[in-house]
Each structure stands twice: as C-alpha cells, then as structure tokens.
Specification:
heterodimer, A: 212 residues, mainly alpha, Rna Polymerase Sigma Factor, Chain: A, Arc Repressor Mutant, subunit A, 60% helix, B: 79 residues, 4 helices, 0% strand
C-alpha cells in the first residue's frame, strides 16, 4: 500500500478512536502537524505569542469538532483550514479596536513584475541558516511581505503543500495561488539577493549585474 | 523546428511556474533556450530557486520552546 493511503487509513482509525472517547489518540493524530499549525498561524498573525494562542484555539476547535470531519479532504488540510480561519479571526478582533475595518485589506499588486536588479546569486547560502542573524533576515523579509503573499508562500514553500491544498485552505483559485506565490518569491528574491549589508559571503561571491 | 524566442519579460512572468513544473513542455523548451543565452534571467532564476530552498529549510521556523507541552496541557484541560 502506498505510504499516502497507509497514512490516511491510520488517520481514519485514530479519528474513530478519538470519537469513541480515546483522547490520547488525538495527540497521535495531531503530532505530525503541530509545526504546520504553528507556521500557518504565524503566516497570518506574525508574532510568536499570538501564533501560539491561535494554534491552541485551532487545535481545541478541531478536537471538539472532529466528529464533523468528513474524509473528503486530508486531516492536515482540514486542520490548517481551521487554523487559518482562527488566525484571521484573531487579526480581525485585534484590528477592530483600532480601526473601523481594515480586515482583508489585502494589498494585491498582481500587475507585471520587473526585477529590481540582476544580482548574481549563484552560491547557495543554505549553510548560512545555521547563523541566527541570517535566519532573522529571512524571517524579516517574509514578515515584510503583504499578508496575501506571505500566506501563500508559507503554505507552499515552507510547508510544501500542494497547489490544491493551498487553494482549499486559503479559499483561493488556482490562478490566484500561482500568481501570489510567483510575486512572493520574486519580492523575496529582491530583498534577499543583495544579502545582509549587501553581501552574502564577505562580498566575494556577490556581483551585481545591472542592465541599466 | 526552431524554438520560438521569448522575451526576458515573458520569462520573469513564468519563472515561478517553471520552478514548480507548472508550464507546458513548449514553454519549458523556450525558457531553457532563453536561459542559455541570457545571464540576467539566469540570475533571476538562480535567486528565485535559492529563495524557495531557503524558505523550505526546516531551520527557518522554529516553534517556541515548550509549545507542544502547553498545547497538550490545553487538550488535557478540555472537560
């Protein structure tokens, strides 16, 4: 049996156990997705304390409503959909104190894109992620994206979800998922290509190529 | 048959789809021909690929310490 259907059968059994009152089975069901729940919450609310609160609320909601889960989607997709909605709700509540309604103030700029420069960024700096300031720089760049781009980027590239799963969780069309992901990646490239202080590795391997 | 040339502009528009293999074989062929000849688009492609790699790196997003403990405590607390 392929790993995927094995997983789903196993999940179906766990769900049955939870519904029959076996609480520990819920831990087992949830455990592989904890990180995803947290990252999804972070993609919307941005700060760790709020994200944790959202994650907890989403998990409690999923636990309470597990009986209504229909296996039409994967458990993970359903769980992340709940998380995403909880996070949006949290944001809405936080904002309602400040403004009339800034909800869904989604800055979309889906027009044509021009690269800011043609920084030659050949060396793959993955090992640099060992350094916390490098991680911080990337996290800051992600955090500075408009929410509509950040959400898609985190689901697709950070969590490796499929286009279809991303569509379901965010309630977007395929075309929108693709356009937003495209824009998110290019914007990130623009902000990260020159590296920190203009160079990734002592400025040695960084060359700027501009055509104008 | 010769590959139909495309502009840098068209290449930028499809770069993300190219990385995700979400383009037609014809488009892939055209883009590959373009990448062979255009250093700028190559740089954009490499940079974008690097971004995808960096974001996908598991070390980027670390959960707060004690996150799962607190979470399980919450579930435990449900009547």
């Amino acid at each position: 049996m392929p790993a995927n259907s094995q997983l789903r059968t196993n999940e179906a059994e766990l769900i049955k156990s939870v519904c029959n009152g076996k609480r520990e089975a819920f831990y087992e069901l949830l455990q592989p997705y904890e990180r995803m729940v947290y990252a999804t919450a972070m993609s919307v609310v941005k700060n760790p304390a709020d994200a944790e609160e959202v994650a907890q609320e989403a998990v409690l909601k999923a636990f309470a409503n597990l009986g209504s889960f229909r296996a039409e989607s994967k458990f993970s997709t359903w769980m992340l959909q709940i998380t995403y909605n909880e996070a949006k709700m949290k944001l809405r509540k936080a904002r309602s104190h400040l403004y009339e309604s800034l909800d869904d103030q989604q800055q979309t700029d889906e027009g044509d894109y021009y690269p800011r420069d043609f920084a030659d960024w050949r060396p793959i700096p993955c090992e640099l992620l060992e350094e916390s300031e490098m991680r911080q720089a990337i996290q800051n760049a992600i955090a500075s994206l408009s929410p509509c781009y950040r959400e898609v980027l985190i689901l697709r590239d950070l969590q490796n979800l499929s286009i279809k799963e991303t569509m379901t969780i965010l309630g977007l069309s395929k075309a929108t998922v693709k356009t937003r992901l495209h824009r998110a990646r290019l914007l990130l490239r623009d902000s990260l290509a020159p590296g920190i202080d203009g160079s990734w590795i002592n400025g040695q391997d960084y060359r700027k190529v501009r055509s104008w | 048959m010769a590959t139909i040339e495309i502009s840098c502009f068209e290449v930028w528009r499809e770069i993300s789809n190219y990385l995700d293999a979400e383009i037609s074989p014809e488009m892939r062929e055209r883009m590959e021909a373009h990448f062979k000849a255009c250093a700028h688009c190559n740089a954009v492609l490499d940079g974008t690929r690097n971004v995808v790699g960096l974001v996908g790196d598991g070390r980027l997003f670390q959960m707060p310490e004690g996150f799962n403990k607190r979470l399980y405590k919450k579930i435990q607390g449900v009547p």
